[in-house]
């Protein structure tokens, strides 16, 4: 049943709508805790924002968002392009619940061939650049880019080294791959640029979807290896042929081999939605990706537009993109991305079949996703809301930071800073501290030093992670640990940060304002959330501490000598075996090492003489 917006509940919004500008810009919806829950752009801010609050039926997902809006703010922009850029930045910053959120780090691997080089090689990359190179992919969903590169290497003699090979340079000798028949050795001019280019063209032909030639080459090599009783190599070639067979299974009937296109379909049950993308390259379906979303847009076409803006910032846009809905502002999309394609919204023949496949996949995923999304919400935002209520916090703790100390007998003391945003780990925000001023094993003082440095950087606006103010700081420990660290927070001059501690014994929560602990229900989502961030801080601190110990254990005495870098150190160890033997060597013996000049040999000898 439709529930209209209750104007009496929020006159603040009603008054703001009266004076809202008709210019273009970005609007930001907030809930009663001041948390940003939706960011949108508009050609006409007054018309767009007013649509959300009119007493008329709206899609259920939009109404669910509107029911949580307590306030909004807006930013006027000079153009729609500026509005789109600002909207994108604000979504990345605030991660609103009712916006499409694609993880920044979600970049699939591509195979890159820099055809501008005289003797190019195959590289696996995750960032596509406008550098004139050829990119193939993305590879995912059971297709491993590394396996494809290995398959190419088994058939064609393409170099894998990182040497810079020019028309004039020449290496002293070939590498092992040449002896194994895996490289044509352009480094020693055993193959010229014209012949090598023919091999590269065959590789490009394969990566463009033509499998027949490479399959024939691998099959002939496997039969030859088997005939020569080189069964181990024959088995490796058989595995490469299995990769070719896997690719062939993904061929789309009636689709030319040189066709690249993406299919993007949006399905919703009214409250939740899923956007499915199907990647077709070289006439084959490389994979299907599903992106759940709770987008608060009024029109489905705008939801799809918002997705495309984020998706193609990290992906190659093919010549054709088949869409389930007509999107607005095609030219704005292309201008923002700096890419262009043919957008098809009324497909026929094979394109229609591909779109139906994507829709079916989206519908199936949506059914399974709804229950998972409920669980995820309960464990993240839902748990945060309960924490705010149970702990009587002033604000919803959207950004939580937890600190933990790790050391052994007071040595190599470190502190970890783990960050959860919206109830989920934000690993890019994690930070590590080496404790510099504390002597011995004193966790209280170590924690105080780390927190002092963190709050100082917050005040000074230093560092991307340190610029953001946490809503809640969590300390691992009891009342004593909380009291000592709260003094640091209170004297820092930074306001608006709350602090609690979580004691391990019976998982008691302490607040600075009370001597009595708060006991959250065992096994509850809110307690599990606190335990997750506490345990993650402990894991991160231990990992950092181990890394420092390992580095110290592997460092050589030679690293302490000015003028002895990694290459000279390795040369000395290769010549003498250990740093102890280097210490026993004479100046002449040290100078006999090719990489060590006489002046440095004297310095090394004097170093060990002075440190006996």
Proportion of β residues?
Answer: 15-25%
Described by the principal axes of the CA atoms, the overall outline is: flat
Question: How many strands, what sense, and barrel or not for the largest sheet?
Answer: 8 strands, mixed
Output mean pLDDT: 88
Radius of gyration: 31 Å
Helix proportion of residues, in percent?
40-55%
Please identify the oligomeric state: single chain
The count of helical stretches stands at: 21
Identify low-pLDDT runs.
Answer: 1-9
Give the termini distance in whole angstroms: 87 Å
Structural write-up:
With 612 residues, the protein is an alpha+beta fold. Helices cover 43% and strands 17% of the residues. It has 21 helices and 19 strands. It has helices at residues 11-18, 45-53, 60-66, 80-94, 145-155, 176-179, 193-207, 212-227, 231-248, 300-311, 330-337, 349-379, 381-390, 443-460, 464-467, 479-491, 525-554, 566-576, 579-584, 587-591, 598-610; strands at 25-30, 36-42, 71-76, 110-113, 122-125, 134-136, 261-268, 273-281, 284-293, 320-323, 342-344, 399-408, 411-421, 424-425, 431-434, 472-476, 498-503, 508-510, 518-519. The strands form four sheets. Strands 12, 13, 14, 15, 16, 17, 18 and 19 form an eight-stranded mixed beta sheet that branches. The chain has a five-stranded mixed beta sheet with strand order 9-8-7-10-11, sandwiched between helices. It has a three-stranded antiparallel beta sheet with strand order 2-1-3. A hairpin with a 7-residue loop joins strand 18 (508-510) and strand 19 (518-519). It starts with 10 loop residues before the first helix and ends with a helix.
């Amino acid at each position: 049943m439709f529930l209209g917006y209750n104007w009496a509940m929020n006159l603040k919004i009603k008054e703001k709508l009266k004076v809202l500008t008709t210019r273009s810009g970005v609007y930001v919806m907030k809930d009663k805790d001041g948390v940003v829950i939706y960011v949108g752009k508009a050609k006409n801010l007054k018309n767009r924002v007013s649509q959300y609050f009119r007493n008329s039926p709206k899609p259920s997902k939009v109404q669910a968002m509107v029911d949580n809006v307590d306030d909004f703010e807006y930013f006027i922009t000079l153009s729609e392009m500026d509005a789109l850029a600002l909207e994108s930045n604000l979504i990345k910053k605030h991660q609103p619940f009712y916006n499409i959120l694609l993880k920044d780090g979600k970049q699939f691997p591509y195979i890159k061939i820099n055809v501008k080089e005289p003797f190019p090689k195959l590289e696996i990359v995750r960032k596509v650049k406008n550098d004139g190179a050829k990119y193939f992919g993305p590879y995912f969903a059971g297709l491993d880019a590394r396996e494809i590169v290995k398959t190419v290497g088994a058939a064609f003699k393409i170099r894998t080294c990182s040497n810079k090979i020019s028309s004039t340079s020449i290496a002293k000798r070939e590498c092992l791959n040449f002896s194994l028949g895996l490289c044509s050795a352009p480094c020693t001019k055993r193959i010229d640029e014209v012949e090598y280019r023919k091999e590269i063209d065959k590789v490009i032909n394969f990566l463009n979807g033509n499998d027949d030639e490479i399959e024939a080459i691998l099959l002939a090599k496997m039969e030859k290896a088997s005939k020569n009783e080189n069964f181990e190599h024959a088995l490796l070639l058989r595995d490469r042929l299995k990769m070719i067979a896997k690719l062939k299974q993904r061929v789309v009937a009636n689709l030319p081999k040189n066709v690249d296109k993406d299919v993007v379909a949006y399905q919703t049950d009214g409250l939740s939605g899923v956007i499915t993308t199907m990647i077709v390259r070289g006439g084959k379906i490389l994979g299907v990706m599903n992106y759940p979303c709770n987008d608060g847009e009024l029109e489905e076409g705008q939801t799809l537009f918002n997705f495309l803006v984020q998706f193609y910032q990290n992906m190659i846009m093919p010549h054709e993109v088949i869409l389930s809905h007509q999107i607005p502002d095609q030219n704005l999309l292309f201008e923002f991305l700096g890419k262009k394609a043919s957008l098809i919204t009324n497909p026929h023949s094979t394109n229609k079949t591909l779109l139906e496949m994507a829709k079916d996949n989206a519908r199936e995923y949506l059914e399974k996703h709804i229950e998972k999304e409920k669980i995820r919400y309960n464990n993240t935002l839902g748990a945060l809301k309960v924490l705010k209520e149970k702990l009587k916090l002033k604000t919803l703790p959207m950004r939580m930071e937890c600190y933990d100390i790790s050391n052994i007998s007071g040595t190599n003391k470190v502190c970890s800073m783990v960050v959860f945003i919206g109830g989920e780990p934000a690993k890019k925000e994690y930070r590590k501290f080496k404790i510099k001023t504390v002597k011995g094993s004193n966790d209280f003082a170590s924690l105080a030093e780390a927190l002092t440095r963190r709050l100082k950087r917050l005040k000074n606006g230093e560092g991307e992670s340190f610029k953001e103010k946490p809503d809640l700081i969590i300390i691992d420990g009891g009342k004593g640990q909380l009291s000592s660290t709260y003094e640091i927070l209170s004297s820092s001059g930074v306001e608006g940060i709350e602090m609690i501690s979580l004691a391990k014994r019976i998982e008691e929560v302490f607040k600075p304002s009370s001597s009595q602990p708060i006991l959250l229900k065992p096994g509850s989502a809110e307690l599990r959330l606190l335990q997750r961030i506490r345990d993650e801080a402990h894991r991160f601190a231990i990992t950092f501490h181990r890394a420092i110990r390992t580095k110290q254990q592997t460092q050589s005495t030679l690293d302490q000598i000015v003028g002895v870098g990694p290459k000279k150190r390795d040369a000395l160890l290769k010549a003498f075996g250990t740093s102890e033997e280097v210490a026993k060597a004479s100046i002449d013996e040290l100078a006999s090492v090719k990489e060590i000049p006489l002046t440095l040999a004297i310095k090394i000898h004097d170093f060990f003489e002075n440190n006996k």
